[in-house]
Amino acid sequence: MRSTVATLLAKELTLEWRTRESVPAMVLFSIATYVVFHFGLDRDRVTGDLASGVLVVTLLFAAILGINRLFVAEHEQGGFDGFLLAPVDRTAMLVAKAVALFCFLCIVEVFALPAFALLLLGPPLTQALPALVLVLLLANAGIAVIGTLVAGLAIQTRARDLIVPLLALPLLVPVVLAAARSATPLLQDGGAGALPGNWMAMLAIYDLLFALIAFAVFDFLLED
Amino acid sequence: MLTGAFAMVFFYAPLDADQGFVQKIFYVHVPMAIVALIGFVAGGICAVMYLRTRATKWDMRSYVSIHLSVILAVGVLVTGSIWARASWGQWWVWDEPMLVSFLIVFLLYATYWPLRFSLEDKEKQARYASVFAIVAGAFVPLNFAAVRMAEAYIHPQTGATVAGGLPPKMGLTFLVALIGMGLLFATLVKYEMASKHATFRLRALRRKLAGDDDDLMLSGRSAAPQL
Amino acid sequence: MQLRGAGRRYGERAALRDVTLELEAGRTLVVFGPNGAGKTTLLRMLATLLRPHAGEVRVLGRPLPDDGYAVRGRIGFLSHEALLYRELSGRENLRFYARLHRVAPARVDAVLEAVGMTGRGDDPVAELSRGMIQRLAIARAVLHEPDLLLLDEPLANLDPAAAAQVAPLIGPDSGATRVVTSHDPAGGLQGADLALGLKAARVAFLAPTAEIGPAQIGELYR
């Protein structure tokens, strides 16, 4: 199982490196969204709950782009068949795809977070950074698991681009909620507040539960 | 007969409504919400059974129960909104966790039909819909926990309204209303299953009359499962 | 390999119905039929990619779909599509599948050599011609030395020289049990033991190749 996941993941990252299909689009989309928020909110700088909301929602929308593309290469180029013909555990596909999506989101944040600090964020990012990274990692994990599941559900449908956001947004409401509430005290004016433990715990539990659910049902999306 | 029981509850319920007329909506709203939630979870359980047995009847049960629950959910949102208007003067209040959760759950389940409809192969349709029903069924309680936590965090007192603090008479009415709503739901599920079954039998017979072959006797594409 | 009354629906339409046949190990079955007759469905069912909706299917002695996991690594499936990632090179694609099948990396080079693609093995698949992609697809199908070869029009897009080159891998002398689909009456019958004709999802004929002539095959396409 572990070597299969490693093989799939290596292929995934190589493909993304070659085509540069998802990650650059997600980064550009994030930055464009900050600009739109600037005009939409008519603010030069945001703090506290507004800042965390803008940050998390932008990340969510950028993630939707990546989720839409997640299984396209498999679907169009026969990767599903090739994988299904191999004598390997099918859940490896879920794990590899979720880890790949997690990596993509992390890379996007490496670019999007400084852009956010530069364009919109009021208080300096530096002191909040370690705690914020922790929040974002947990949020990424949740988005990656749910995103992979949703992408798997939608890939065979004709209306893929419509179904993905319609499914992903409600399912990710708890993640957005918990991540935004966790990040709020970190982005306040006059120094970062303490990390709210209960929200972090909820985020972690939600991630874990959905990982279990995805683990249980993902096989059924692959067989024919 | 079962609907009769439900109707009786309707006539009995107003007797206890001593907190003004609008309070009566409570007997419709809350049982409807509870039954809809149970329906969603039941849809998920039926979906598990489908994936285990691959018997179409389980997919059908899952479909019917989600179908009816979504209709009830619309009812919950409408009655909840009316209730909110009456007691707080606004059609929509964000700090009522039940209502907000319901909206999110409703939005999620509304995608059930587009998902089914955009898959052509019936077997695949049933399989994907089942996976959806399981994920969504598990999401329902999680979502409620999350939203409730969000509200309790700011307004600690909004939480306990349902079970506790009711005078016994109202409690009894509520219980009967709940049972009535449950029976109504069960009846509708049965009725819907029977009707789906009859439609399918009719189509099969017609096909047989037309000379056994399977092509293009369809009366149009449908997102509903077939037996 | 055994099929008894095997069938598969697609929606309300039958894609394949009531196929009963038996093929001994090491023999070759050739399948004829017009487009949409069910050839590909049959192959995909044998490859464990589609589960049968009716009847019994046994592949390499194991019942499907229950024992699918046990036969999967022993089947080589050459489908219409190459099942190769277009942005990866031929070699990278084969390495990827070699790892999934737990085959030694040295085998990749051997197979590339055998299909005559050593020179172009490092070019992205997207830049190759259809004939070259077909050769790579053949390389992928035989990478793990399967016992059962399922070949969907294996010689499509190949010139005669290339066809001769891949013959040891997928031809009658490959030693594997083979199921081959074909549109070419003469070429298809060559090297086959048993011929199956499919028309509109049903079996039109099933007989040893000696008893089948071009006329019967021509009848299928009418």
Strand content of chain C: 25-35%
User: For this structure, what is the CATH homologous superfamily of one domain in chain C?
Assistant: P-loop containing nucleotide triphosphate hydrolases
According to DSSP, the number of beta strands of chain A is 0
- Largest pleated sheet of chain A: none
Shape of chain A: globular
- Beta-strand portion of chain A reads under 5%
Classification by helices and strands of chain A: mainly alpha
Question: Low-confidence segments of chain A, ≥5 residues, pLDDT <50?
Answer: none
| Fraction of residues in helix of chain C | 25-40%
Sequence of secondary-structure elements of chain C: EEEHEEHEHHHEHEHEEH
Here the CATH topology of one domain in chain C equals Rossmann fold
Overview of the molecule:
The complex is a heterotrimer of chains A (224), B (227) and C (222). Chain A has one domain. With 224 residues, chain A is mostly helical. The model of chain A has no long low-confidence stretch (mean pLDDT 89). Chain A has helices at 2-19, 23-41, 48-69, 72-77, 79-85, 91-119, 129-154, 160-183, 197-222. Chain A contains nine helices and no strands. In chain A, 79% of the residues lie in helices and 0% in strands. With 227 residues, chain B is mainly alpha-helical. Chain B has one domain. Helices cover 74% and strands 0% of the residues of chain B. Chain B contains seven helices and no strands. Mean pLDDT of chain B is 74; it is low at 14-19, 154-164 and 213-220. Chain C has a domain at 2-83 and 148-220: P-loop containing nucleotide triphosphate hydrolases (Rossmann fold). Chain C has eight helices and ten strands. Chain C has helices spanning 39-46, 68-71, 90-100, 105-114, 130-142, 160-170, 185-189, 214-220, and strands at 2-10, 13-22, 28-32, 54-59, 62-64, 75-78, 148-152, 177-182, 194-199, 202-208. In chain C, strands 6-7-8-3-9-10 form a six-stranded mixed β-sheet, with helices on both faces. The longest helix of chain C has 13 residues, at 130-142. The two termini of chain C are 30 Å apart. The model of chain C has no long low-confidence stretch (mean pLDDT 84). Chains in contact: A-B, A-C, B-C.
Jot down its keywords.
heterotrimer, A: 224 residues, mainly alpha, 9 helices, 0% strand, globular, B: 227 residues, 7 helices, 74% helix
